[in-house]
């Protein structure tokens, strides 16, 4: 049953890899058809672009979350929809913040490195747990960030309202602010950041963001750190449901308070997300960049009572910057009829939790051996039972995902 279901999933996809696949990717996508290429501008990549980290192998179950049409490395749009704009983003997605309908995307579940858009996961995880009026004293470890990376200018020993740190995080992409917020949310001790990163990963799984794994609270590159355009839309939906978050990301400029005891003056800092200055109906969002991840972007806007979110990863800044690519994709999304859809943003309760593992029967005295020296061939019935249980548990989430059929089947454009 599992093998037939996977074959059916592969038959529903069209696949042209965005880049040469690794052996693990090829193994994970065996039996898949050819994807529709995503529209790309004819520009050469920068010569100094470093190689991207090798992502995990594709997961057929995780790639079909939200609908089996989303399990593609290529373009997925509604039948008859006009071609989306050509952007340099390696992957992207446009979705409705309110209904959760996915309007279209390019490799929505493909693993990518996040850069600073990962700060939205930090916000989705702890913004409700921290009092914006509370003041925090900055520790030396909060400034332990990659040299040359973005910082809002916190000083060791300085005291700041939590609301100011959120503004420094969202407007100026302060990695120092990310560390301070994560440390406080994790209890304030030396293990506070690690505890918050663990909470971020647990929250990602709760939301259904199964391609997301955080290593740093800021999005600074770390081994094994990945996300996807689909996951970022799930996370953004949580963020934009929070009134404080909406207020922070729409703030055009803010003031960093002076620290008289430390003889440090205050200063003003600006919102780096140019969408709020240039796009009618902009709701805000988050920019991101590292030399490894390249440009990433999350942005949202409202038009005629309809709120859309765009997420993109792995973009170059020419011929358009990340927010401009986001604006072009938002325009494309707003031009789509309201009832068009290629998938769905799942809600936290939509994915059935795994069944509890059955407790093993008490072992007979002669079977009380360690795993390394036990001869499993003397217990054929127990082995068969264990395999049967494993197959049932593995098949359950896959079958649930494959039954999430959309009201309208998406079309695939070849031009």
UniProtKB/TrEMBL annotation:
Pfam families: Peptidase_S11
Family annotation (SUPFAM superfamilies): beta-lactamase/transpeptidase-like (SSF56601)
Keyword Amino-acid biosynthesis: no
Region feature Disordered, mapped onto this chain: 38-65, 346-377
UniProt keyword annotation of Phosphoprotein present: no
Keywords linked to the UniProt accession: Cell shape, Cell wall biogenesis/degradation, Hydrolase, Membrane, Peptidoglycan synthesis, Signal, Transmembrane, Transmembrane helix
GO terms for MF: hydrolase activity
All residue ranges annotated as the Peptidase S11 D-alanyl-D-alanine carboxypeptidase A N-terminal domain in the record: 82-316
Signal peptide feature range: 1-26
Family under the similarity heading: Belongs to the peptidase S11 family.
Annotated protein name in UniProt: Serine hydrolase
């Amino acid at each position: 049953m599992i093998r037939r279901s996977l074959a059916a999933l592969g038959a529903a996809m069209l696949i042209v890899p965005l880049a040469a696949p690794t052996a693990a990717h090829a193994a994970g996508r065996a039996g898949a058809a050819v994807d529709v290429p995503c529209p790309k501008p004819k520009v050469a990549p920068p010569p100094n672009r470093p190689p991207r980290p090798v992502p995990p192998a594709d997961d057929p179950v995780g790639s079909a979350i939200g609908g089996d049409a989303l399990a593609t490395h290529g373009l997925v749009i509604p039948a008859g929809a006009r071609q989306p704009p050509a952007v340099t983003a390696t992957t992207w997605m446009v979705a409705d913040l309110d209904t959760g309908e996915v309007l279209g995307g390019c490799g929505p579940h493909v693993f990518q490195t996040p850069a600073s858009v990962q700060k939205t996961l930090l916000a989705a995880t702890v913004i409700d747990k921290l009092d914006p009026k509370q003041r925090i004293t900055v520790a030396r470890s909060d400034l332990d960030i990659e040299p040359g990376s973005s910082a809002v200018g916190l000083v060791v020993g300085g005291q700041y309202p939590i609301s100011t740190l959120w503004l420094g995080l969202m407007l100026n992409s302060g990695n120092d602010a990310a560390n301070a917020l994560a440390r406080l949310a994790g209890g304030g001790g030396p293990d506070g950041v690690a505890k918050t990163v663990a909470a971020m990963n647990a929250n990602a799984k709760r939301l259904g963001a199964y391609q997301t794994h955080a290593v740093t609270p800021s999005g600074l590159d770390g081994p094994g750190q990945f996300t996807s355009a689909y996951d970022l839309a799930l996370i953004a939906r949580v963020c934009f449901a929070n009134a404080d978050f909406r207020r922070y990301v729409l703030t055009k400029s803010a003031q960093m308070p002076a620290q008289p005891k430390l003889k440090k003056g205050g200063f003003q800092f600006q919102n780096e997300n140019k969408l709020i200055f240039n796009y009618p109906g902009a709701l805000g969002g988050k920019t991101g960049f590292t030399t490894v991840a390249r440009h990433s972007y999350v942005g949202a806007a409202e038009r005629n009572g309809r709120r859309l979110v765009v997420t993109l990863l792995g973009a170059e800044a020419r011929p358009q910057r990340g927010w401009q690519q986001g604006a072009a994709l938002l325009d494309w999304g707003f031009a789509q009829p309201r009832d068009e859809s290629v998938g769905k943003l799942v809600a936290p309760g939509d994915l059935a939790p795994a069944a509890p593992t059955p407790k093993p029967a008490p072992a007979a005295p002669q079977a009380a051996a360690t795993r390394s020296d036990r001869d499993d061939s003397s217990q054929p019935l127990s082995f068969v039972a264990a395999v049967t249980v494993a197959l049932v548990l593995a098949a359950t989430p896959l079958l649930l995902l494959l039954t999430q059929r959309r009201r309208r089947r998406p079309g695939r454009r070849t031009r």
